[in-house]
Amino acid sequence: MGTTFLMSPLSGVLTGLLGLRCTAVLGGTIAFIGLFISSFLVDYVDVLCLTYGVMYGLGASLAYTPSLAILGHYFKRHLGFVNGIVTIGSSIFTVIMPPLMEYMIKNYGLPGLFRLLSVITIGVALCGLLFKPISVVVIEKPPREDGFKALVKTIINVQIWKNKKYRLWALSMPVALFGYFVPYVHIKKFIDLNFTNVQDNLPLQCIAVTSGVGRLVFGILADKKWVNRIVLQQISFYVIGTLTIILPFVKSFPLLVVVSLGMGIFDGAFIALIGPIAIQFCGSAYAAQSIGCMLGLAAFPLSLGPPIAGLIYSLHRSYTLPFILAGVSPLVGATLMFAIRFQK
User: Fold this and answer.
1) What is the pLDDT of residues 74-91, one digit of tens each?
2) Comparing C-alpha atoms, which of 229, 214, 240, 80 is closest to residue 166?
3) Torsions phi, psi of 80, nearest 5?
């Protein structure tokens, strides 16, 4: 996941150099190769860090950013709704994949699972072939005499960073997302420690299901003229942060399921709004780079959150402080977004 987000700025640059279609196809192909090679190396964890961690992560990154940016080429009035439809796929597969993966491992082993995943992933490249961008911004290769500065200008699109609203949003998101993955990674362990004879996968599945609902509902809301998309995203972060802080104090499993359902709805809301907000600030022509740069900035906070939470747990033998800190970060990030409203 760290590689996926960290390489997002590269994905944005490649969409300018190669186009959305070529970048998506390249990403799907690299991800497929990474998974297929991994199926022959399941006993070598260090090598899997390269084939599954880096190769698959890079491929996923190159495919993910164009899949959001392409929507701005086709849709204007219903951009939020179509973003909801596109991103709902991850919610559906979060529910479907765990039992399927468990079945594959049990009957065909880890090599069989990797091969199945590689077959599914090649579909990403095939879908990328269907992309037909209306207009593509071509980033010219820097002239040799300009040297390093020209290269930096090619990689970091100066135009989008001149937009103060985008700049504030892109810098607020990493703060808000620092604790994002903490509940996903640690909630199962938290359930095992605090509850007995319960389905420990149920809260995650609930988050996935209601996340899909949230993506559609908030996607439709984002298309309304009277709706401020930034405010919607702020509300999402405030609710996610509050529910994450409440999480360690929940002593009833049914109540934990209810909290998970609420987290899922607003998780879907913030995800569905990423594409429309980036396009609103930078336009569809620069959507890939604006989304890619924001995700690239968020890569380190997203990746560091769960291991830091694990370290705190190992010191205190309690998930109270890790979940509270994970909940504070979206509250702080959402509050920083108020600065956007003071920009012309």
Assistant:
1) 887 888 788 888 888 888
2) 229
3) -65, -40
